Amino acid sequence: DATSEEIENLLKELSVMKMVGKHTNIISLLGCCTKG
Fold first, then answer.
1. Taking the CB of residue 36, how many other CB atoms lie within 10 A of it?
2. In angstroms, rounded to a whole number, what is the distance separating the alpha carbons of residues 30 and 10?
3. Alpha helices (H) along 1-36
4. Tens digit of pLDDT for each residue in 1-36?
5. Most buried residue, 8, 14, 28, 36, by CB count within 10 Å?
């Protein structure tokens, strides 16, 4: 299981990926699942 720090880091990275949007040098974020 992920630690609270790992979950926080994932959420921060997802937030950055949402802000970046479409960029030629970055793979686009299609979706994510944070519950399971």
1. 3
2. 15
3. 4-20
4. 889 999 999 999 999 988 888 889 988 888 888 887
5. 14
Q: Tell me 26's DSSP state.
A: B
d(CA 26, CA 7): 22
- pLDDT for 1 equals 86
In angstroms, rounded to a whole number, what is the distance separating the alpha carbons of residues 25 and 2? 29
Please give the share of the chain, as a percent, with pLDDT higher than 90.
42
* Sign of the alpha-carbon dihedral angle for 10, 13, 19, 22: negative
